[in-house]
Design a protein that fits this description.
Mean pLDDT of chain B: 88
Largest sheet of chain A: 10 strands, mixed
Structural class of chain A: alpha+beta
Oligomer: heterodimer
Number of strands of chain A: 29
Shape of chain A: rod-shaped
Helix content of chain A: 10-25%
Strand content of chain B: 5-15%
Radius of gyration of chain B: 23 Å
Shape of chain B: globular
Number of helices of chain B: 9
Structural class of chain B: alpha+beta
Strand order of the largest sheet of chain A: 1-3-5-4-24-25-23-21-27-28
Strand content of chain A: 35-45%
Helix content of chain B: 55-70%
Number of helices of chain A: 9
Strand order of the largest sheet of chain B: 6-5-4-1-7
Mean pLDDT of chain A: 80
Distance between the termini of chain B: 40 Å
Distance between the termini of chain A: 108 Å
């Protein structure tokens, strides 16, 4: 249950804003005009996606972001995040100044800091002003370039980049320098160049210095910014613009009639507004090479290293484990994507939260991005968090670099409870839900034999010519049936063809009963003869007379057969109707003669 | 040491039976983790006759070796087992598992799994056997009816049922025949290069991953023309890259 609550808290949607707080702190309350102040705005809360603070309008200050630092912690099942944004402030005017409420809005609720007041004093008693820091020790105006051709101009501005040919997402440092050899009147106005196609980062603090140029000594102020080209091709950095008023020395005639009027109205020096523009810079942005691009490459360009660690090495199944993956190095860390975790079937892997720490020292954007993930081992035993691959393109080497974390070995003891449930639904009283672990092939089988159904069905497939048998049987049956049908349609012919068979059947019966009942045997013989003739002549056996039979035989088989028939017919009738006791042998003696006659007639008689 | 002991077990098993041993002995090798010896034992048993269980176990033994080509050989063995007994859930599971590793799916996309299971419930041989049994039943019933007319009323529903089943089985068989790859093969090398002709002088058209099912279209010496079932590509590859499936 504790784990359940922990995970619910970790994964709960960030709808609560009660825990958010914002504070602002200035490193000092009094600063000279040529000094820099550091403002630290800290936003903390119980969520990881804390928004950036909204700074109020600060016309008295130039504000540069110098970095951020973020910490995320999972403590007792609660997530807490703290982001410290650091800004460098350059005062522009002497006097009292204030920073209004700095706000952050979370889920529609606004959280603010209290206003901060501070004092800006003059450095060394010199009056200076301007968005660009003025020279620390302004010199008296010297003759202008127009007046003295071999001298440099009074003021000028330059823009330069550290390299003209870069890869996509590689840092380019843009330096804008404002030079002045004369005192400035009023505050120079600086308009940053248009950097379409780039992601831009300030690189504070501003720098100042002196440099001789064309026989003049210039004071300069320098603003740097880091640019990361977002696309390949020829990208243009627009002109930076500085508007300033410089003291213009005019020839004043002390004997002129309006000398005093001019002296008191504008003094001996008059102001001249100048708008200075830098030349646009065109960069050639090279695409990242396709050859050798690793699968794990997600667009990181720079120099990085990756590491991973867990907050514990031994735990119980079902317990939460914090996996922290840190990528640190120099490059566009803001755009750095989350490294894809390899498949970890033995763990339940929850969403990853990230924190960004930026540092802009030495004009390079560097720092670290930390990704934190909660893992919950699903099974006990020796488990391993595999190597997490990460690759980046190193523009200095011009090639992709494959990196990865070392595998982390864990010892997981069996959980005390029923183990982690597959969902956040509380297990029912009857038992928990099924917990899928790792898919694998199924184990080998024990018996080598084929199942009965398989044997039964597969066997006929191997019998080739035997399958002709039912077809043959069917054909024969069909022929027999047709024959029978044909016979059924011709009863006379059927009697004619079956006459011999019927006669023989009667003769066999006569043989069987000859010894016991000779009269009955004689009757069978007569039935055989008369029936044969009736079948052959298509007559009724009972109504057939000897005369009719003789006439028919005379026509069909000749007179001789007719005589034979007559004698045999009469002999059988004598035995049939004999008044004395009849011997079986007498009947049996007639059978061969009868069979002979019937066979002869069967052959000779045609329909 | 364990592999030596496993080899001794295998040898003793062979000597004691005078043959390839038993499936239980081969399973013991597998259980002890000696997948290579187990595979040899299963292959020896298969030389005595095909068996879906032996092909299944052989597939497992190859799969567990995790060496180059083992996935392809495992897929080939599972396919042999599936050819013999497609309705076996274990065979189906392992074949699907191995095919997924090689980037394929057993069930075509868009086809309901239950329909695929029904369609492949019987093996090709079983379906053919069922067809023959129904053919026998149908013809013998009809013959009996012809020869003994009084039985015809009783035989008529039997004959109608047999005919309907025979026609249904015939349609099933015809559909299976249309979906059947007669000369099926499996890629058994890590990446089989397929060229536009049977020789190394032809350029490589594509590379087929290990375990991928292919159709063997033609042969020329030591080269086979293959077609991939999934992408429909054709090319020539060396015969050693392909293991054919007995269908």
């Amino acid at each position: 249950m504790r784990l359940l609550l922990t995970l619910l808290v970790l994964l709960a949607p960030p709808t609560r804003a009660q825990e958010v707080s914002i504070t602002a702190e200035l490193d000092r309350t009094v600063a000279a005009l040529d000094e820099r102040l550091t403002l630290t705005v800290t936003v903390s809360g119980d969520r990881t996606d804390l928004p950036d603070p909204q700074l109020p309008s600060m016309p008295n200050l130039s504000v540069y972001s110098s970095g951020r630092s973020q910490n995320i912690a999972f403590v007792n099942g609660r997530v807490s995040s703290r982001i410290a944004h650091t800004f460098v402030l350059s005062p522009r005017f002497v006097g009292k100044a204030s920073i209004g409420p700095i706000a952050v809005t979370v889920d529609g609720r606004r959280f603010e800091t209290s206003p901060i007041e501070f004092q800006i004093v003059r450095p060394s008693g010199q009056p200076t002003a301007g968005i660009l820091p003025p020279p620390r020790a302004p010199r008296p105006p010297e003759p202008s370039a127009s007046a003295q051709g071999h001298f440099g101009p009074d003021v000028f501005v330059t823009a330069d980049v550290d390299k003209k040919k870069v890869y996509v997402n590689e840092q380019v440092t843009l330096t804008v320098r404002f030079y002045t050899a004369v005192s400035l009147l009023g505050n120079p106005e600086y308009v940053a160049p248009v950097t379409q196609g780039f992601l831009s980062e300030d690189l504070p603090p501003e720098r100042h210095g002196q440099v001789p140029f064309k026989n003049r000594n210039y004071h300069y102020s320098e603003i740097k910014s880091a640019l990361f080209p977002a696309q390949a091709g020829r990208l243009k950095i627009g002109s930076a613009v500085v508007r300033c008023q410089v003291q213009a020395a005019e020839a004043v005639d002390p004997f002129a009639p309006d000398f005093f009027q001019r002296f008191f109205s504008q003094g001996l020096l008059s102001g001249q507004t100048k708008e200075l523009r830098t030349e646009p810079i065109t960069l050639e942005v090279l695409p990242l090479p396709e050859a050798g691009k690793p699968e794990s490459f997600s667009g990181a360009v720079g120099q990085y290293r990756i590491g991973a660690e867990t907050d514990k090495r031994s735990l119980k199944a079902g317990d939460a484990l914090n996996l922290t993956v840190t990528i640190e190095g120099s490059g566009n860390l803001k755009a750095l994507g989350e490294p894809s975790l390899p498949a970890m079937p033995s763990f339940r892997v929850y969403d990853t939260v990230s924190s960004l720490n930026l540092n802009k020292a030495q004009d390079r954007v560097h720092g670290s991005k930390v990704f934190k993930t909660v893992l919950v081992p699903k099974a006990s035993g020796g488990l391993s968090v595999p190597s997490i691959p990460f690759s980046y393109f190193d523009p200095a080497r011009g090639e992709y670099v494959r990196a990865g974390t070392a595998p982390i070995e864990l010892q997981v003891a069996p959980g005390a409870g029923p183990g982690p449930s597959a969902s956040f639904v509380a297990p029912s009283a009857g038992g928990g839900e099924l917990t899928p672990m790792q898919e694998d092939i199924r184990y080998v089988k024990g018996g080598a034999g084929n199942p009965f159904l398989s044997r039964l069905l597969a066997r006929p497939a191997g019998l080739r010519w035997i399958h002709a048998t039912p077809l043959l049987v069917f054909i024969l049956s069909l022929a027999a049936a047709r024959r029978r049908e044909r016979l059924d349609l011709d009863p006379a012919g059927r009697r004619f063809r079956g006459a011999m068979v019927s006669a023989l059947r009667e003769i066999r019966q006569a043989e069987r009963c000859a010894s016991e009942n000779p009269s009955r045997a004689a009757a069978h013989l007569f039935e055989a003869l008369a029936g044969f003739l009736a079948d052959k002549l298509d007559r009724s056996a009972s109504g057939l007379t000897l005369r009719e039979a003789q006439e028919a035989l005379s026509r069909m088989a000749g007179a001789e057969r007719s005589q034979t028939l007559k004698s045999l017919w009469e002999e059988i009738e004598q035995l049939r109707f004999a008044q004395t006791a009849l011997a079986g042998s007498e009947v049996l003696a007639l059978i061969p003669r009868l069979e002979g006659l019937l066979e002869a007639l069967d052959t000779e008689m045609k329909r | 040491m364990s592999s030596l002991r496993a080899a001794l077990v295998c040898l003793l098993a062979c000597l004691s039976h005078g043959s390839a041993g038993t499936i239980e002995e081969a399973n013991q090798l597998y259980q002890k983790g000696d997948a290579a010896q187990a595979a040899r034992a299963y292959e020896a048993l298969l030389s005595q006759g095909p068996s879906p269980a032996l092909y299944f176990n052989l597939g497992n033994a190859h799969f567990k070796q995790a060496s180059p080509g083992s996935l392809g050989r495992a897929v080939a063995a599972y396919l042999q087992a599936y050819e013999l007994l497609p309705r076996d859930p274990d065979i189906r599971h392992n074949l699907e598992f191995a095919l997924r590793r090689s980037g394929e799916n057993l069930v075509p996309s868009g086809m309901p799994r239950i329909l695929h299971r029904l369609f492949y419930f019987l093996s090709w041989k079983e379906l053919l056997g069922l067809q023959w049994i129904l053919y026998w039943l149908m013809l013998l019933t009809a013959s009996l009816g012809l020869l003994v007319p009084p039985l015809r009323p009783k035989l008529r529903p039997v004959l109608a049922t047999a005919f309907a089943c025979w026609a249904a089985a015939g349609s099933w068989l015809a559909l299976r025949a249309s979906a059947r790859t007669a000369r099926l093969g499996v890629v058994v090398t890590p990446a089989a290069e397929a060229r536009s002709g049977p020789g190394t002088n032809f350029p490589v058209g594509f590379s087929a991953p290990e375990g991928r099912r292919v159709c063997v279209l033609a042969e020329s010496g030591d080269w086979l023309e293959i077609g991939t079932l999934k992408e429909g590509l054709k090319g020539w590859t060396e015969a050693k890259n392909i293991q054919r499936i007995k269908t």
